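Thread: "does anyone have the structure for this chain?"

Original post by V.I.:
We have the sequence but no experimental structure in hand. Need at least a predicted one for the grant figures.
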Amino acid sequence: MTAEESVIKAPAGDLQQPHASEALGADPGLLRSLWASITAVFAKEARWRMRGRRAFVVMTVYVALLGLLVLAVYQLIYDRSQFQFGFNMARVATDQVSGNVSASIGQAIFTAILILQTLLTMMLAPALTSGAISAEREKQTMDLLITTPVSTLGLVLGKLVSSLAFVLLLIVASVPLMSLVFAFGGVAPEDVIRAYVVLFVMAFGIGSIGMLMSAVFKRTQVATAVAYLIAFVLTIGTLAFHTYLTISAQAPFNDPSDVRPAPEALLWLNPLVTDIDLLCTAIPDTFGFTCSYIAMIQGNELGAFAEQPRDSFWPKSALAFALVGIGATLLTTQLIAPSRRLRGWRGRADAAPVAAADAPP
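Reply from O.Q.:
Generated one for you, tokens below.
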């Protein structure tokens, strides 16, 4: 049957418009295959990780502890305001707070939840992703996964998403408590959205590093230890090294005209400094610690009429985490089955001359 006859005899329902990916130059078959691979691996891993009571119990306990933290922050700020301004019996009886105290409570809740979520991401993301590949090797099931029709990139993305799903659920579970800042004031909605975007990108970058270590090392314990070491270096090591360079540049024997700030890029992958810039953006205080520190690492001078620019550091940090995540994911894909990828490309190259030879004149 010729191609013309097959088109004529094809049912009317099979004659569809070209897919949007075809118009963009992408192969829709490859995109559908990649999506099918991601969903298949994600479904299998999610059933295994979320099966049973442990995940739901951990999430419930975490939300309860987070609620107690919010309550403690509220009570602490309220009691401090009462101690600072003196006891007002009418206000205590009606349990009301002034506008300034209410804004301070909202800002304190935002700060506490943001820092806690950042520490949670840095602790859980490496632990959940560092065994994704090495565990398959230890169970001797990696070769079976490679021989399946699942693409290598789909396998890596599916395992990455399923491993980070629990961390993302814990982050999303804090949204109701974070929304309390709108009741107290002091923090704008865009500041909360900005914080969650940074948390998601940070989880992707740190989780991809853990996945890469899982592909480099064959044992899960070693991969987890190295992933935690990298997280520690990014959190504490870069901050300590940047502080050392800053103090060395400000030594008394140095010429003030030759003093240059330490490279800002050293802290782009530091989650704590990113949180400091988010707090400076959400709670601007020219002479406070957050804005003063960001101005110091960027070499800006703050004064009575000069303020720290908003959104000056965290976009660079978010972009750095995203690029690290993409690079680590692609490198993990190559490390898992490099020969399979080479065979795939070589097979396509060999099939092209054969198809050209068989084509009718």
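V.I.: this helps a lot. Residues 1-25, 87-94, 340-359 have pLDDT under 50 and may be disordered.
O.Q.: and The two ends are 17 Å apart (CA to CA).
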